[in-house]
Amino acid sequence: IHSYPPIHCNRYFLGHLWMRYNSPRFVSSKQFSLLVIALLLIGAGLFSTRTYGAQLPQRSLTLSDSLPSATAQYTLSFTIPGSETLGSIQLQFCSDSPLFGEPCTAPTGFDVSGATLSAQTGETGFSVSGSTTANTLILTRIAASTPGGPVTYTLDNVVNASAPGTYYGRLQTFASTDGSGPENDHGGRAFVVNNS
What we know:
By secondary structure, the chain is mainly β. Helices cover 15% and strands 40% of the residues.
C-alpha cells in the first residue's frame, strides 16, 4: 500500500492566526469560527492519504529492440492476483521513478501513442484506447469479471526514448474502461534503453 506523503503544516501560518485571534482585544464569534475552520482544513491535510490496490506479481516488460529511438515491440506480462472486474489497463512510462505518488517525467523521444496491440493472452478483448498519449498507454475493453491469473499483451510500433538509460513503467488495472477511478492493482517495472 502506498500513500502520498503528508502535507506539512506551516507553523508560521498557525502562529499568525493564533496571534491575530488571541490578542487581548475582543474576539467575535465570527472571527473565532473562521479560525476553527482554518485549523480544521489544515488538520485534514495532515492526514490525507491515497490508497492503492494490491501489487501485481510477476511483472515483466521486454523490448524487441533496445536501441535509442528505435521502433520496437514491447511485451507486457503480469499476473492478476485475484478475482476482480477488469475494464482497462494503464501503463505509464516515466524517466524518474516507478513509484506511484511520485512525479512522472515522460522520457524524451518516447512515444507509445501509435502503438498497436498485436497479441493478447489470459484476459482478452482489449484494444488500444483513443485516450492513449505519448507516454501513457491505456488498453480498454467492456468491463468483465476475471478470476485472475497470468496475462500477456504485445504492443507493436512503440518508439524508444532517444537517450540511453533506465526507464520505468507504472502499471495499473481498473474496473473502469478508461483508466479512471479507483484502481484494482498496480506495480512498477524498470527497463533499459542502450546502444548495444
